[in-house]
Write a structure and sequence with these properties.
Blueprint: E1 18-25, E2 32-40, E3 43-51, E4 56-63, E5 100-106, E6 112-118, E7 136-140, E8 157-162
Antiparallel strand pairs: 1-2, 1-8, 2-3, 3-6, 4-5, 4-7, 7-8
């Protein structure tokens, strides 16, 4: 008599753990690159490399919609703010948007790199206050002042990527 072994694997709460997306120029810029998002043990890591930037400080945010169709990037809506907080620097006790990643510096070579990690995001979970799928990554021409409401006065949206499966 033959024995048949049956293995059953249950996938409970499976989430996509890694997404790579391209950042495309907006507002007449040449700013293009890629972003890698990954999730492990409840922490999401964002790694961005972008070329074609002006030297100086630039802001990077998550915006409400993964719609990069407009030439100025405004089709993405405002900063992603599912908890209805004031705009501010990430972690500020007086409030910040879940999309308020912050600023990064670009040297004379025009290349910028961002590394960010948080347990306040997830990739594809059912918590709308954490799920970043369907949002957009926006790089701005200028720096975020962390004060001006609702967006930090960071200037034109010069690169865009939708966070999609």
């Amino acid at each position: 008599m033959k024995k048949i072994l049956l293995f059953v694997v249950f996938a409970v709460g499976c989430q996509r753990s890694q997404i790579e997306i391209g950042l495309n120029p907006k507002s007449g810029s040449n700013a293009a690159g890629f972003a890698l998002l990954s999730e492990k043990n409840g922490v999401v890591e964002l790694s961005v490399t972008i070329r074609g930037l002006d030297q100086g400080i630039h802001a990077i945010h998550l915006h409400e919609k993964a719609d990069c169709s407009s030439v100025d990037g405004k089709s993405t809506g405002g900063h992603w703010n599912p908890t209805f907080e004031s705009h501010g620097a990430w972690g500020n006790e007086t409030g910040y948007h879940k999309g308020d990643i912050g600023n990064f510096e670009v040297g004379t070579d025009g290349i910028g790199r961002v590394y960010f990690e948080t347990d306040e995001w997830c990739i594809g979970c059912e918590d709308d206050t954490k799920n970043i799928l369907g949002k957009a990554i926006i790089v701005h021409q200028g720096a975020d002042d962390f004060v001006s409401q609702p967006s930090g006065a960071a200037g034109a949206r010069i690169s865009c990527a939708g966070i999609l499966e």
